[in-house]
Specification:
heterodimer, A: 237 residues, mainly alpha, two-stranded antiparallel sheet, 11 helices, 2 strands, 65% helix, B: 253 residues, alpha+beta, 6-stranded antiparallel β-sheet, two-stranded parallel sheet, 5 helices
């Protein structure tokens, strides 16, 4: 009798072990967490979140890259912190906790930028601070990190931040080429994309490109291209 | 004993612990990064002063160039007398150092009586010429604007000007920091024939090349242009007494 129960127990344990097989680090599901936000579930072009910063700081590629890195940092560590605390965060104050986490990470980023990249920090000005209100971040905390383990949350954070980042950089490339005729890289200087002969022939930099409306139009064009390539994004009606 | 995660005690405890941890972490970060940030700010101010006397420099050689060209710095009081002078190394802790005077506070603080205000001035030596640099602050459309104007040894002719802003509209008001706006200041005069202070007008609709007391305003940036105009006349008014005295002394010599 006693041996029988022991057997059953050990069988049960085995069954339990089989029911939750150890997931490989980069299973198909986890990979989707990284790749989905880049295209099918892009935070900017599909979910249309985080638009304001995408419009404001895409005048220069440099700024867009630094901003993207800041968002990657905040998103990755924020998601990991929230996910590791998810079982102890009191549900009544969870939004406040999420806000505190994102706000303190953003302040940290801002201080670091001020200390090490003063010139870019000056150009980004209030937009680093406005990462706090970036809906992508709070959205991922609430929708994903609160209910998932640390590793998938980290992947989700990187995925979404990269989805945001590539749109930002793409828009910035278009705007800087047509707005300034050249892209400036730190340490390298300006690389001219519009040949001087164009300017001699009467070509002029498009000042509208530097202003926010053109960023909106550029994002619109990206959405258009994306939808024409990816049919499942098109709504039924 | 299992903790009831929905109890008020746990919620309060969690909130308090979180605030303490986050507060400690952020203040540690802020304390340890502060020296670098201050150094950056000092560099930035040095760069602006250097650019007003037409010296090209960047962050890597800012302080070296600053000490090379700026020979002396001083603070004036309301009646145009020198109250403090400093030479050589800037000490960030010396609040009487003219470099550390918060110009914005001196002009904008309503509690400060005009008699108690201090106005920094920098003396520079470049190509054998004696120059003075005057810092100024004003209001743009969206936020503060500031700048440095350098005058030649006659305390009348503008040698160079540099302006900057916090958040003016790109392409419009923000153009005040571009050479297109700054360069025309060179060679303008702040005193007229009768030796009265007329400042330099930032003129809407264009000043014309023969007008030596005005520069072109920025199309579409009228409020920022007016801000620069107001800033110039107010600041130069403050230094008026000192300039007049000094130019008389040089004339007598």
């Amino acid at each position: 009798m006693s041996t029988e129960t022991a057997e059953v127990q050990s069988q049960e344990q085995e069954v339990v072990k089989e029911a939750v097989p150890k997931e490989p680090l980069f299973s198909a599901k986890n990979k989707r967490l990284l790749t989905d936000p880049l295209d099918d579930d892009n935070p900017i072009t599909v979910q249309v979140l985080g638009i304001c910063s995408a419009l404001a700081i895409t005048v220069q590629v440099q700024q867009a890259v630094v901003m993207s890195l800041a968002v990657v940092f905040v998103m990755l560590f924020g998601n990991m912190i929230i996910s590791s605390l998810r079982n102890s965060i009191p549900s009544r104050i969870r939004i406040i906790v999420q806000l505190v986490v994102v706000a303190s990470l953003v302040i940290l980023v801002n201080e670091i930028l001020k200390a090490f990249l003063p010139d870019i920090s000056e150009k980004l000005s209030v937009f680093v601070g406005l990462i706090i209100t970036n809906c992508i971040i709070m959205g991922r905390f609430e929708a994903f990190a609160m209910g998932n383990k640390i590793f998938p949350s980290a992947l989700d954070g990187i995925g979404n931040a990269m989805g945001y980042a590539w749109i930002l950089v793409a828009v910035a490339v278009v705007r800087e080429i047509f707005g300034s005729g050249a892209i400036s890289f730190p340490g390298v200087g300006q690389i001219k994309f519009i040949p001087a002969s164009f300017f001699e022939a009467g070509y002029m930099n498009n000042n509208l490109m530097i202003l926010p409306p053109m960023a909106l139009i550029t994002v619109g064009v990206i959405i258009w291209i994306q939808r024409s390539r990816n049919q499942k994004l098109i709504e039924e009606n | 004993m299992a903790i009831d995660k929905n109890s008020n005690a746990f919620t309060f405890g969690f909130a308090i612990a979180m605030v303490v941890v986050v507060g400690a972490a952020l203040s540690f970060a802020s304390m340890s990064l502060k020296p670098r940030q201050q150094a950056n700010k000092i560099q930035k101010d040095m760069l602006s002063i250097l650019s007003s006397i037409e010296v090209e420099s960047d962050r890597s050689n800012a302080s070296e160039m600053f000490y090379q060209y700026i020979t002396k710095r001083a603070t004036l009081n309301y009646s145009g007398e020198i109250v403090e002078t400093r030479e050589g190394e800037i000490s960030p802790t010396d609040s009487n150092d003219p470099f550390n005077v918060d110009v914005q506070k001196e002009y904008r603080n309503p509690d400060l009586k005009p008699e108690d205000r201090h106005y920094p001035i920098y003396f520079a030596q470049k190509d054998g010429k004696q120059l003075v640099v005057v810092p100024m602050v004003g209001k743009g459309l969206w936020g503060p604007i500031w700048g440095y104007v350098s005058l030649e040894g006659d305390y009348n002719t503008v040698y160079g000007a540099t302006f900057d802003h916090k958040s003016e509209t790109p392409g419009l008001g923000a153009e005040i920091k571009e050479p297109m706006f700054e360069d025309p200041f060179k060679g303008k005069k702040i005193y007229n024939e009768q030796n009265e202070l007329v400042s330099i007008e930032v003129k809407k609709g264009g000043a014309g090349p023969e007008n030596e007391h005005a520069v072109d305003g920025i199309t579409g940036g009228t409020i920022t242009s007016n801000g620069v105009d107001e800033m110039l006349s107010r600041t130069l008014g403050v230094y008026d007494k000192y300039f007049k005295e000094q130019s008389q002394i040089t004339q007598m010599q």
